[in-house]
Specification:
Helix content is 40%, strand content 25%. It has 511 residues and is α+β, with helices and mostly antiparallel strands.
């Protein structure tokens, strides 16, 4: 645990030191769970967004994008159920005066049981070697069966209590399980209460006529209310999707995990409109599709897992999370939800307008069903950044900190370094820079010894360093150093663009 915490602290400080993420309004001591993206952070974020947009919108003939406003007519949130049901169950610890999400306390307890089971499985796998049958062991080893059963029972009971709004039972469960405040160990809990996560604001100048609005807590509703506009003007045929990326706001109860849980964050969502009855198929397909997208970045298959929901949101008939192995363990990175026709039907009812699709093949109108994929851009940023940050021991006994960002996402693709600040080398480096900057984000650096500049670029995540030396004057070749292998090759200046492009082109990653 301590090791995990250290790693996470390192991630946060590295993100600040190398110009990725700053606390918001830091000169005023910051604002809790709000962050600013710095000069490198904004590039990484843009690149992640672009990687998603390419894969989801531009590579699909039947998916288009929109950019809806953050402020929406307030009835939207009545219809969507957010005014009445976008709540999290909160619980306070009287001893520590800390506030927690009751469901998260219980889920973390269940996760510990899963980890205990996994430990037994790993031990047995080591003991039995190749002959080990994990499935059989899981279903027959009494200890493992016990842990897993207990975990399932706990989660099922919580799901039932939350669904029935039986908050007293949620508290009873916390007490029965002996769950203590993770910070202080105190078991002195208050009652569980519901807390609505939407931020309110006002539209209009005078107090009497001002209209109560909300900052959107998800981007999805901007898509639903535009469903017919897009379908008609884009002449879209079912099945088709509408995607968007944009800010969302949630007044989160507990926000202690850097950019994992923010109060202002960005989502990348796609709503896929389908024929009723086909939702199971599409749900499975989008689960598979989205996992593939994640795996294309090469951050290790073992770092992802699906978590199918027991506790379904009010709109869903199936839901699964893609969880990622963050520095603090496996947590939700993306949700895939089968949302039925809930949203469109609700908007029909509240607006009095028909939101139906005329299916020429079936010769009838219906309200389409929806499967959605929803990922937090900031969480994706954290996944990529934390996974890439590594300390390496080198053969010569020294060590280096390297940020092995997937090259396609790296903020800066190459640094151009004149070996010395004289003999015409800076001028040549500038020419290379002026040529490459049309295609890539590149930087020029002439300060300090070249070895130190390499280390600086390693830590900043730049995949290539291009060094201009005295031989360059003679034969127009430079050295190009690879961040990950630290290998250096001599290449022709005229080949640079192609070499970099091969490594960073979206096509070569997504394919
Ligand atoms: P959680 O259970 O972690 O609160 P959620 O299930 O409420 O998340 P969704 O409503 O499904 O999340 O939102 C879709 C995605 O938006 C999540 O998978 C996550 O990546 C992102 N997201 C949600 N809340 C936040 C937040 N407060 N900060 C950053 N990203 C968030």
């Amino acid at each position: 645990m301590a090791k995990q915490e250290d790693k996470f602290k390192k991630v946060i400080s590295h993100a600040k030191e190398y110009g990725y993420v700053f606390p918001s309004s830091e000169i005023y001591d910051g604002l809790s769970a709000v962050y600013d993206y710095a000069q490198n952070g904004v590039e990484l974020k843009n690149n992640i967004r672009q990687y998603w947009w390419k894969a989801m919108v531009q590579m699909h003939e039947n998916i288009v994008g929109i950019d809806a406003a953050i402020l929406m007519h307030p009835t939207t949130w009545k219809a969507s159920g957010h005014v009445d049901a976008f709540n999290d169950p909160l619980i306070d610890n009287k001893g520590s005066k800390k506030r927690y999400r009751a469901d998260v306390l219980i889920e973390d307890h269940a996760e510990k049981l899963l980890q205990k089971a996994q430990k037994e499985i790993n031990k047995a796998a080591k003991r039995f070697g190749d002959s080990f049958d994990e499935e059989q062991f899981k279903t027959t080893n009494p200890r493992v069966v016990g842990y897993l059963q207990k975990k399932d029972e706990i989660l099922a009971r919580m799901a039932k209590s939350l669904e029935n709004e039986d908050l007293a039972d949620v508290k009873a469960l916390i007490e029965e399980l002996g769950i203590a405040d993770p910070l202080t160990g105190s078991k002195n809990w208050t009652e569980v209460k519901q807390f609505n996560l939407m931020f309110g604001t006002k539209l209009g100048a005078s107090a009497e006529s001002a209209m109560d609005l909300y900052l959107r807590p998800e981007t999805a509703q901007g898509i639903f209310v535009n469903f017919l506009n897009v379908q008609k003007t884009g002449r879209m045929k079912i099945p088709f999707g509408i995607a968007q990326t944009g800010k969302a706001f949630r007044n989160e109860i507990v926000a202690r995990q850097f950019i994992f849980r923010m109060r202002e964050f960005e989502q990348m969502e796609m709503q896929f409109f389908i024929k009723p009855g086909t939702q199971k198929e599409w749900y499975e397909q989008w689960k598979e599709n989205r996992l593939k997208w994640h795996l294309s970045l090469g951050m290790g298959e073992e770092n992802y897992r699906f978590h199918d929901h027991d506790k379904l949101a009010h709109y869903a008939d199936a839901a699964s999370d893609i969880e990622f192995n963050f520095p603090f363990g496996f947590k939700e990175l993306e949700g895939i939800h089968s949302r039925t026709d809930f949203d469109l039907t609700q908007h029909e009812e509240f607006s009095g307008k028909k939101l139906q699709y005329f299916d020429h093949e079936e010769n009838k109108s219906y309200v389409p069903y929806v499967v959605e994929t929803s990922i937090g851009l900031d969480r994706m940023f954290l996944a990529v950044f934390s996974n890439s940050l590594q300390d390496e021991e080198l053969e010569n006994g020294t060590s280096r900190t390297v940020l092995k960002l997937p090259a396609v996402l790296a903020p800066t693709k190459a640094a151009i370094l004149p070996l010395v600040k004289k003999d015409g080398l800076p001028e040549i480096a500038r020419t290379i820079m002026d040529d490459l900057k049309w295609n890539f984000n590149v930087i020029y650096d002439e300060k300090d010894a070249v070895g130190r500049r390499y280390r600086r670029q390693d830590a900043a995540g730049t995949p290539f360093c291009i060094t201009v030396d005295h031989q360059t004057i003679e034969d127009s070749t430079v050295t190009i150093r690879d961040r990950d292998t630290m290998d250096q090759k001599r290449v022709k200046m005229t080949d640079l663009r192609q070499i970099i492009d091969d490594k960073v082109a979206i096509k070569n990653w997504l394919k």
